[in-house]
Design goal:
By secondary structure, the chain is α/β, with parallel strands linked by helices. The chain is built from ten helices and 14 strands. Strand 7, helix 6 and strand 8 form a beta-alpha-beta unit. It binds adenosine-5'-diphosphate and magnesium ion (MG). The site of adenosine-5'-diphosphate has 11 residues, from helix 1.
Length: 314
């Protein structure tokens, strides 16, 4: 295993051409991101954030405006062929020729990559995505979930080290979502680096080792999932005191205390370890008189909201 990231993105900008007169949409505003090899990486962001734009630049479907991208160490401009061979992409939209069977879909894809007949793995891939019994069914007769699984198999035909799934579970029922999660985890266990985009926090939390949050074309966070989820174990109590603050109160149970105004402080603590009552007692014991108290609780949704609103500096 090397330290070379599976995907390296530097100062990536995409401005779509304007439909009429005007500027055109600035979908990516200079994103830099390293996606480590061997992991499951989540690209989390609301609709319109720029996730698909980024994925489509990786696949060559969208041309970047500026910046650079390498896949498995291959620059997508200078070494397009190797870059393309290193990645398999499952697009957000399901598109199939309805008259091909799953087996034919995979064989056709292998043909596109120039893979010799005896080296093709269509049967094996169908088994891997649990579609062996649908080998000869018409694609149009497959359920939505089966189609998604077939798309995953199709993306893996040329054995790329990196598999990218754009919103694999958007609009998918709970049962099927579970199935897809298992499949993605299996692929990763077999050594494939997985990148997936999602706007479900729960999904990113369940599946991903690391999560980057993208909003309005900017990457606003990039952390191990544990750390992001850890932020959701934190609670903040904001205190107003009766006089201007000299020094901040300190206590072993505080994760952080910061001055938010002349007479206000925000104290962050872990709700598994302490509670608001203990925090207040600790502050009073240090000679402060509290005149007002507000508390906020962060779940992952709040962490996301606070990161995606400009309220909190990065
Ligand atoms: P996401 O996948 O995160 O929902 P997209 O990358 O699809 O976001 O879109 C990012 C922004 O770029 C949106 O404002 C969207 O309307 C715009 N956009 C996407 N595709 C095009 C296009 N082909 N032409 C013009 N604007 C586009
Ligand atoms: Mg999208």
């Amino acid at each position: 295993m090397t330290d070379t990231p599976a995907i390296q993105i530097r100062d990536l900008v995409k401005r779509y051409a304007p439909a009429g007169s005007g500027e055109g949409k600035l979908a990516l505003k200079g994103v830099s991101l390293d996606i480590p090899a061997g992991k499951i990486f989540g690209l989390l962001g609301p609709n319109g954030a720029g996730k698909s734009t980024m994925i489509n630049i990786l696949s060559g479907m969208v041309r970047k405006t500026s910046g650079s991208v390498s896949i498995w160490g291959f620059d997508i401009d200078r070494d397009q062929r190797n870059a393309k061979r290193s990645i398999g992409i499952v697009p957000q939209e399901i598109v199939f020729d309805p008259f091909f069977t799953p087996f034919e879909v995979l064989e056709n894809q292998a043909g596109l990559y120039g893979i010799a007949r005896h080296l093709r793995r269509s049967e094996e891939l169908l088994r891997a995505v649990h579609l062996a019994d649908k080998r000869d069914a018409y694609a149009r007769a497959l359920s939505g979930g089966m189609k998604r699984r077939l798309l995953i198999a199709k993306a893996l035909v040329h054995q790329p080290p990196v598999l990218v799934l754009d919103e694999p579970t958007a609009g998918v029922d709970v049962e099927l979502r579970r199935q897809l999660w298992e499949l993605v985890t299996e692929m990763n266990r077999e050594g494939v680096t997985v990148v997936l985009t999602t706007h479900y926090l729960e999904e990113a939390e369940e599946l991903c080792d690391r999560i980057a949050i993208i909003n309005h074309g900017t990457c606003i966070a990039n952390k191990p999932t544990r750390e992001l989820v850890g932020m959701a174990r934190e609670k903040v109590v904001e205190l107003t005191l009766d006089r201007d603050l000299g020094q901040l109160p300190v206590d072993a149970a505080f994760i952080k205390s910061e001055k938010t105004g002349e007479r206000t402080i925000a104290i962050t603590y872990n709700k598994d370890v302490s509670n608001a009552g203990q925090v207040l007692a600790a502050v009073q014991a240090q000679g402060f008189t509290i005149v007002d108290v507000t508390t906020r609780e962060a779940d992952l949704e709040d962490v996301f909201v606070s990161l995606t609103s400009e309220a909190r500096p990065a």
